[in-house]
Amino acid sequence: MSAAAPQLARQDGLLARDSGLLWHPYASLDAGAHYAVTGADGVRLMLADESGTHEVIDGMASWWSMVHGYRNPVLDAAAHAQIDRFSHVMFGGLTHAPAVQLAERLVAMAPGELAHVFLADSGSISVEVALKLALQYQHARGHDTRRRFAALRGGYHGDTFAAMGVCDPVDGMHAAFAQPGREQVFLPRPPAARLTTEGQWESDAAELAEWEVAARKIAAAYMDELAGIICEPILQGAGGMFTYAPKALRILREIADEHDLLLIFDEIATGFGRTGALFASEWAQVAPDVMCVGKALTGGYLSLAAMLCTPKVARALGGPGPGSALLHGPTFMGNPLACAVANASLELLTGSADPRSASAPWRGQVSALEAALREALAPARVLSCVKEVRVLGGVGVIQLHDPVRVAEVTKAAVRRGAWVRPFRDLLYVMPPYVCTPGDLQVLGDALVLAVAEIHGN
């Protein structure tokens, strides 16, 4: 990596040129960026700002997607090989090997009877397609009044319009867009649960029983209006890195079956091993009717997502006439370059083993992440500003009593060699699976010391 690259970024005034020109996620136009990325390799980013250059471990895995690290030789080779063939072709009326192979892989990995695949170009779009499919399913069955969805409070499913509608309508990021949420029905958030080091889920049985009564009552009240139930299984990401008991998923499965609703699991953030199970729903041994995946699907290289459904759902749309078509078709649907890299990424995750076996590469990687994160973040528990420290699979969370002073904590962490993106009262990491114990110790030390410096001991 050229030592001149960071210097060049500063000389070019990249940060100043960015400000007011580009919007960044969930930020005002004049917010700009705090650092310029001048290189990336393995689990590290090279950042530049007015103070100089910084080599940092990416604790975010580029928003939870770059599970194999940057410049991974296997994924690089897959991308180069596909570019040498063709990088894109329309999917309307055409197909190609990378798309077919990817769909076959996903079906083989998926829980339950998920057997049909729609390739989308982002996680939010896969949720849009899932919701659209549920509406068409109910219409095909003669249930034209079923136009609404039940969702969990605290949930997040994307930033596009229908996806916003099933996000938390009050405490979520889309409270300003009230109209979409008014159409939906919201179940209370299940009570918190924690996975012990012995692999057992702990939650308050009385609170869970109370939640079950409320969820069943609400679903029964709106049964003739509901098309489906959607949730992030086990871990609500943007809703606060909140974990709840697997039993809640079993209850939602029972409610869906009782009222002939489709159960939709949003595994975009949780899929492909992040929580310590291949898919988070497997903690409950429950399979959905529809499932959305994304983020880690391509190892963070390209935007790609997928919606999977069961034969029961797909066949309801069967037969002649316009009602048989799933009415969605992105321009870059089934992009060959993204599909080729996704195939290589899934191969790295599973190797030649059964994807759920103890010898599948992802399982050893995530198990090692979990153990190292528990050790690395444990010192934060003695800080008076810290409310809780929790770890699930490849997710480590330090929750404060008060909101994080984001800009200050971020800079303090960068000075110590870690890139993080705090929000609300949370400082968390979801690092690449290929981090070493030493990398994770650096992350842990950076987070703990940054919190202590900015929020006090």
Automatic annotation (TrEMBL):
Gene3D superfamilies: Aspartate Aminotransferase, domain 1, Type I PLP-dependent aspartate aminotransferase-like (Major domain). PROSITE patterns: AA_TRANSFER_CLASS_3. It holds the Pfam family Aminotran_3. GO terms for molecular function: adenosylmethionine-8-amino-7-oxononanoate transaminase activity. Keywords: Aminotransferase, Biotin biosynthesis, Cytoplasm, Pyridoxal phosphate, S-adenosyl-L-methionine, Transferase. Its EC number is 2.6.1.62. The record marks 26 as: Participates in the substrate recognition with KAPA and in a stacking interaction with the adenine ring of SAM. Pyridoxal 5'-phosphate binds at residues 123-124, 266, 330-331. HAMAP family: BioA (MF_00834). Belongs to the class-III pyridoxal-phosphate-dependent aminotransferase family. BioA subfamily. This is Adenosylmethionine-8-amino-7-oxononanoate aminotransferase. It comes from Paeniglutamicibacter sulfureus.
